[in-house]
Specification:
about 425 residues, mainly alpha, two-stranded antiparallel sheet, globular
Length: about 425
């Protein structure tokens, strides 16, 4: 099913720009422990009303756009159910195993499989312009009355979680390059408009948009969600996709700048020292907040790697970017753990000469690795949480090894990164 793109709201770029200039660097407060927004309603009317006028107006317009787009999504499903005589929507087939969306070798896009996947992607694009996650696209196109998501309820419609939306757009772009079928380009452009609409007035992106509520409304670095968006927009702005009009390339470049400001304003400062990033941040203040029961406000030894690498890839980093990267590299080196091997079966095994590894979460202020089960109680030993969470989550990572090697070369090209306090 192919739909006409919804028109962009006039003046939203100006509103975003006003807020980015006016926003105080709230994320730089000492030893941030999260905010009072952990009540799960981070965008309540009371919180919006407490903002300065320019910020208040920008957020009201953003939330109003979200509601209009959510109404389009739900209205389409109601129409389909009425047309097919279904009492309830069916869940999309769930994908088990590796995803097929994203970038592939050029030869793949000339295969029958690629065309089947791309055609299915067209049908799973929401009226709001994005896509959900974990949908088995190999099962074929979406049928009327089938949910846009494989969830059993109306959830993650649509999202940037788990590489969703950005992955579908990359597949569409590759298939357009192979076939020059205009439907693929048109769907990509609708997805691009969706990403523009989803960007918050702070420059961040929520995990789910239209807004779903709870931690899904937070600015989300978790699983590299925002980094995926920013890298795709960078590709757009640099002309990688020749079917994107110049006006949208320019807007993509503006959105990357705003997203970079979100990153810089979200970097956690402890005792007046810049460190790294939390996996999710309060949408209004950018202070670290809790997500799922076992994901506390913390310093991320996982997601911060992707953020640091994105900043190192900026073509002309200013002094603030250089300071941010230097601080992150310093934190990674100070927080490295040696003498242990970590297995993804949830075991931390002493081993001479092993390491470095990094915990997924570090407690803000003490810099101690923290762990939690579904009961939401912080533990300081991984073996103190239930086996299901111990084995079902990557509590330690090694990604920073490669990032620090890149940093050594990067710092030589940016001498200000070699010494001094952030």
């Amino acid at each position: 099913m192919r739909r006409t793109p919804t028109p962009r709201t006039a003046g939203r770029l100006a509103a975003c720009a006003v807020l980015l200039v006016a926003a105080a660097p709230a994320a730089c407060a000492a030893a941030q422990q999260g905010s009072g927004a952990n009540d799960r309603n981070m965008l309540s009317e009371a919180r919006i009303d407490s903002l300065p006028p320019a910020q208040r107006q920008a957020w009201r317009e953003y939330i109003a756009r979200s509601r209009r787009l959510a109404a389009l999504d739900s209205a389409e499903m109601r129409r389909e159910l009425a047309a097919t005589g279904q009492a309830a929507m069916k869940a999309a087939p769930n994908q088990n195993g590796s995803t097929v969306v994203g970038e592939h070798p050029a030869a793949w896009y000339r295969s029958p499989e690629a065309k089947r996947i791309a055609d299915a992607i067209l049908t799973y694009q929401t009226p709001s312009g994005g896509w959900s996650k974990r949908v088995d696209l190999a099962a074929g196109p979406r049928r009327a009355g089938t949910n846009f998501t494989s969830e059993s309820h109306w959830s993650y419609v649509a999202t940037i979680d788990n590489g969703a939306t950005t992955g579908q757009m990359q597949t569409l772009a590759g298939e357009y390059a192979a076939t020059h079928d205009a439907h693929y380009a048109a769907s990509f452009l609708r997805g691009l408009e969706y990403l523009f609409e989803a960007q918050q007035p702070t420059g961040c992106w929520p995990q789910v948009y239209p807004l779903q509520g709870g931690y899904h409304d937070a600015g989300t670095f978790n699983d590299d969600a925002m980094v995926h968006v920013l890298r795709l927009l960078q590709d757009v702005s640099r002309g990688r996709y020749d079917f994107v009009p110049d006006s949208l390339r320019q807007e993509a470049a503006t959105r990357v700048k705003q997203g970079t400001q979100c990153i810089l304003n979200s970097q956690v400062r402890v005792n007046d020292t810049l460190t790294v990033w939390c996996a999710q941040n309060d949408p209004l203040t950018l202070v670290p907040v809790k997500a799922r029961s076992y994901e506390f406000p913390s310093l991320s030894g996982g997601e911060s790697v992707g953020v640091m690498e994105f900043l190192m890839d900026l073509p002309d980093p200013g002094p603030r970017v250089v300071r941010a990267v230097r601080a992150a590299a310093d934190w990674f080196r100070k927080s490295a753990i040696y003498g242990y091997d970590y297995t993804y079966k949830g075991k931390l095994v002493p081993k001479e000469g092993a390491g470095p590894i990094w915990a997924r979460f570090y407690e803000i202020g003490t810099n101690r690795p923290i762990f939690s089960g579904r009961n939401g109680i912080i533990r300081y030993r991984m073996d103190e949480i239930e086996p299901e969470r111990r084995y079902g989550y990557a509590w330690y990572r090694t990604d920073a090894v490669g990032a620090l090697k890149r940093y050594d070369a990067w710092s030589r090209a940016h001498p200000g990164a070699q010494a001094g306090r952030p």
